[in-house]
Amino acid sequence: MLRFTLLWLLLFFLYLPSSSARPAPFAMRISCGARQNVRTPPTYALWYKDFAYTGGVPANATPPSFVTPPLKTLRYFPLSDGPENCYSINRAPKGHYTVRIFFGLVTQPEVDNEPLFDVSVEGTLIHSLKSGWTSHDDQVFAEALVFLLDGTVSICFHSTGHGDPAIISIEILQVDDKAYYFGPEWGKGVILKTTSRLTCGTSKPRFDEDYSGDHWGGDRFWLPVRTFGQNADEPRSTEGRIKQASDAPNFYPEALYQSAIVSTDIQPDLAYTMDVDPNKNYSIWLHFAEIDASITGAGQRVFDVLINGDTVFEDIDVVDMSGDRYTALVLNTTVALSGRTLTITFRPKKGKHAILNAIEVFQIIAAESKTLPEEVRALQALKKALGLPSRFGWDGDPCVPKEHPWSGADCHFDKSGSKWFIDGLDLDNQGLRGFLPNEISKLHHLQSINFSGNTIHGPIPSSLGTVTSLEILDLSYNNLTGSIPESLGQLTALRRLNLNGNSLSERVPSALGGRLLNGASFNFTDNAGLCGIPGLPTCGPHLSAGAKVGIAFGTALSFLLLVTCSVCWWKRQQNIHRAQQIAARGAPYAKSRTQFSHDIQLSRHHNHGQARTAAENGPSLLS
């Protein structure tokens, strides 16, 4: 009984930590172009349909590589929809994420078989597809480690004129907040773009999921490298357990360290060379575990690590530094490269051969500062109100990446606030057919607006007078109506104002008229209703707004009174006419009654005469 109780307590305490274990990381996988959610083998990961996330055209997909998720659809973005097209995804908790995008090929003859385009995440350019990418398994996707700070993520695809961007899938996978910490420069202002990730001594490409890795690792893809060259190395493998493998914060899968390559007598140095972008900084992660059965203790294998000929690690003894055989060791360094190649060399010093399990190489990218959010919202409202043609795009961030700013919007970087803002709008002769919204006044830093030569209608918003930095305002040759707002007179920096060729009316604000004496260039011509300054008709008596309201009210009241009187007169005439008709119908009877009345009156007169005679003669005496 005591033995059973002790066993039960042991199982209870073993279970207790797992019940309070770290929750699963946030994960969103999107199957682009899909009409319904799908699951894919072998792990049966859930992929969400992308309906309502973005524009573009759904189509059947041709996966360019066997490492591409087995999804049947994609979404591509014709240039006619604009040069920038974005997925804006909400409800992503603040944190550190792996963002991965798989590219696809459209199965339509009229679509370019190998489109070339750029990819940005949160306004920062992370990848540019290069010719021939469909022939390399590690180029069919782009991947980066990004901090998401506001609960949303924006992933944009930028056309470069070489085919339409086509996307099969997007993955947003949360990782540890301290994952891939590489030194003081690491932080929320840094993005790590995956340049290469290799697993050595095996021919099987695998994701972390295939390795049964921890979900907090981000489901990394490991490209297999069986050998660095003929007779240059030999593979090693083990099925034994590897200690210290799946530890925080990077959570590498244990199986990653169960295969390796070692150099040979013919080629004692292990060397790996890859292409890189020049003049960039790179974070390099090297993985070791002593799984070679010929090595039984510390000091038997010691080697140096060189990058482009420079020694970065000396006297690497994996057993000694990790603490034991079959124990993971990870080394990290940061290097600045000016050339286009990166060569990592492992040079033996003791024991003739070097060993290597895996390599990771990241390009360090400074995250772009984004445009002020209120100005982005103002531009989106302007886009909708003006009916901006779809060819403009205007999707994502207007100022970043700097390689792909919005057409028609001029940007300026505020170093003190580390934010971009809009200081100019140039959309003349673009077929705009909408109206000017009040939100345009939210662009507080505007210095120039040119909307001339369109068919913009409606009034000039008075709120435009609050953009005190405005120097040039050209709204000429549109269909603007109403009066010129008095608030425009408050724009003391305004030196050029073109409102000619519209349908504006009433008096030009006196503050604007006075500015003409100070050398400002204002044009109000071709507005039939404007008056009040030299060159325009003279205005009549100026009425205040209250007077205009009073006149309008009096006119309405007089009209109502006139209508009421007219109705009453018409009713009276109707009653008179009706009475005449009734009288005409009863005329014979009325004549008889009149004659009878006349006879009675005559009779009365006769009797009355006789009575008077008797009275005059006195009373009659009766016997």
Short description:
The protein has 623 residues and is of the alpha+beta class.
Unreliable spans: 1-20, 587-623
Distance between the terminal alpha carbons, to the nearest Å? 163 Å
Mean pLDDT: 87
What is the number of helices?
Answer: 6
Total number of strands: 36
What structural category do the secondary elements indicate?
alpha+beta
Shape: elongated
Percent of residues in β-strands: 25-35%
Computed CA radius of gyration, to the nearest angstrom: 45 Å
Percent helix, as a range, is 10-25%
Largest sheet composition? 15 strands, mixed
What does this structure look like?
The protein is α+β, with helices and mostly antiparallel strands and 623 residues long. 18% of the residues lie in helices and 33% in strands. It has 6 helices and 36 strands. It has a 15-stranded mixed beta sheet that branches. A 6-stranded mixed beta sheet has the order 27-28-29-31-33-35, with no helix packed on it. The radius of gyration is 45 Å and the shape is elongated.
